[in-house]
Recover the amino acids of this structure.
């Protein structure tokens, strides 16, 4: 361990304590669960993990999803704490199983635009849920709209001392951001404790954290049956997905920035072990959050020991300074949470998507889904929306007509290159997406319609450049299309046909189609010219 790792770990501990307490509040669980989870996660990650910037601790997104999951439990169910422990254990087990099956690529099912939109909506949701703490009122709402309405109805009862405390802490946090070498969250935490004692904030009605009991309390719950385990798995699955997407995104981005190497399946196993450790101490779901990872980078972390130092420093801080931590005003914690999430409210990533006209609907849909449907259903809606948009794009691909560029071997999109020309009597068409069961018949039907608009074209080249493979439906559609072209007297030649597709045609006995296949568009053009009766007469 290097000296720089020790300094970085101490700095990060100052951020972990207020965030841990605040995220436990988001999940509706006692603060000691988040603190114990951060300690256990830091130790467990060191065994398998390889990212020097990953700080394994509770995250705002997983805390919010856990809160939504626990809120969905029916009345009379097992205690929320016991169910939370089972969910975390299931999260760890799922990570380990997926790592063993080498399913690290599942993180890609949450695209970056969806993740950004989800983070944007989640940030707004969490910030709004901090407002009752800021105004000093015990308000709750089933939805964000209901909570805002309740806040407005109780505007006359807002506690001014709590509001002033939160605003002062938030202003201090934003000011200290201009000095990244200082542990801003830790200094604000110390300042809040000092203000609580000097100004007698509890006596003025400002709520404080109170004493934190670090001893795990095992709530009674019998061994779950298959029905209960199935329900727990349903609650754990969204947490696994968002935790790995968020954690892998943080690890990968920081690793690429510094030339490090991380492997998704190994990191997935490390997250599994960390969550199992968190469950054993009755903690919370843990992952590599962006704010803690960025803090490790800014503090100059050199090795993986930084996370262990941070966990140890957090333990020492809580054990040795517990009487002081008990004086910490809750509005200060709310301010720490709000400040930590302000970066997620930056509209620049969404504006960029709008400018480049890519994935803007998915990002906005994710944000609106979280705000309208809640965290859990909103995330599932965002994933379903991104998959639906992908399927729509694949099922309705654009058709590009190609032309020869300057009498060379290059064939380009005629719509983008007006100087390109189609060979006489030929039409060259390229679908913009692979042919598969959902689009093959539709795409080939559009080619037939296109041919109908150009009666002088008696030769057709269909480029399969985008189709690495074909399923049986697409192959059958091609065979039927070839039969139709023969019946209409149009000579068909396939271009950019890969060996894998040729093997499939051979296995299906489509030898005529193989004979009409070329490796390049230019080869296909020459093949049609060589058998063109008009060329033979010349």
């Amino acid at each position: 361990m290097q000296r720089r790792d020790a300094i970085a770990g101490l700095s990060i501990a100052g951020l972990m304590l207020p965030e841990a307490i605040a995220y436990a509040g988001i999940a509706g669980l006692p603060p000691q669960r988040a603190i114990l989870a951060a300690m256990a996660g830091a130790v467990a990650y060191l065994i398998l993990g390889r990212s020097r910037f990953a700080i394994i601790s509770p995250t705002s997104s997983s805390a919010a999803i856990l809160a939504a999951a626990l809120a969905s439990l029916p009345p009379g169910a097992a205690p929320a704490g016991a169910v939370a422990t089972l969910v975390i254990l299931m999260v760890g087990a799922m990570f380990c199983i997926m790592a063993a099956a080498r399913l690290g690529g599942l993180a890609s099912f949450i695209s970056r635009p969806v993740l950004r939109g989800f983070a944007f909506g989640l940030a707004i949701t969490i910030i709004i849920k901090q407002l009752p703490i800021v105004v000093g009122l015990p308000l709750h709402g089933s939805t964000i709209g209901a909570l805002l309405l309740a806040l407005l109805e109780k505007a006359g009862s807002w506690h001014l001392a709590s509001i002033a405390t939160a605003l002062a802490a938030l202003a201090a946090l934003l000011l200290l951001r201009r000095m990244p070498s200082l542990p801003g969250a830790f200094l604000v935490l110390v300042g809040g404790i000092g203000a609580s004692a000097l100004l007698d904030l509890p006596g003025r009605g400002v709520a404080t954290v109170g004493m934190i009991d670090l001893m795990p309390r095992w709530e009674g719950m019998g061994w779950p049956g298959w029905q209960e385990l199935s329900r727990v798995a349903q609650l754990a699955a969204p947490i696994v997905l968002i935790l790995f997407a968020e954690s892998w995104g943080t690890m990968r981005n920081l690793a690429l920035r510094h030339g490090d190497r991380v492997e998704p399946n190994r990191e997935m196993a490390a997250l599994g072990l960390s969550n199992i450790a968190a469950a054993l101490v009755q903690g919370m779901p843990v992952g590599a959050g962006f704010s803690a990872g960025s803090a490790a980078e800014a503090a100059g972390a050199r090795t993986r020991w930084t996370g262990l130092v941070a966990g140890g420093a957090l333990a020492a801080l809580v054990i040795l300074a517990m009487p002081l931590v008990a004086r910490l005003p809750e509005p200060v914690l709310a301010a720490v949470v709000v400040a930590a999430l302000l970066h997620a409210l930056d509209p620049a990533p969404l504006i960029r998507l709008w400018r480049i006209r890519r994935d803007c609907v998915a990002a906005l849909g994710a944000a609106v889904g979280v705000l309208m449907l809640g965290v859990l259903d909103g995330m599932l809606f965002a994933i379903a929306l991104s998959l639906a948009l992908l399927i729509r794009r694949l099922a309705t691909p654009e058709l590009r007509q190609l032309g020869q560029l300057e009498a060379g071997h290059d064939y380009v999109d005629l719509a983008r290159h007006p100087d390109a020309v189609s060979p006489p009597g030929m039409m060259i068409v390229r679908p913009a997406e692979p042919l598969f069961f959902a689009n093959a018949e539709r795409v080939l039907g559009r080619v037939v319609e296109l041919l109908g608009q150009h009666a002088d074209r008696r030769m057709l080249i269909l480029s399969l450049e985008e189709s690495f493979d074909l399923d049986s439906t697409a192959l059958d559609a091609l065979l039927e299309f070839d039969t139709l072209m023969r019946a209409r007297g149009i000579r068909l030649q396939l271009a950019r046909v890969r060996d894998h597709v040729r093997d499939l045609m051979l296995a299906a006995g489509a030898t005529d189609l193989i004979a009409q296949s070329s490796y390049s568009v230019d080869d296909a053009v020459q093949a049609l010219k060589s058998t063109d009766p008009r060329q033979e007469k010349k």
Summary: Residues 226-258 form the longest helix (33 residues). DSSP finds 23 helices and seven strands in the chain. The chain has a mean pLDDT of 86. The first strand starts at residue 56 and ends at 58.
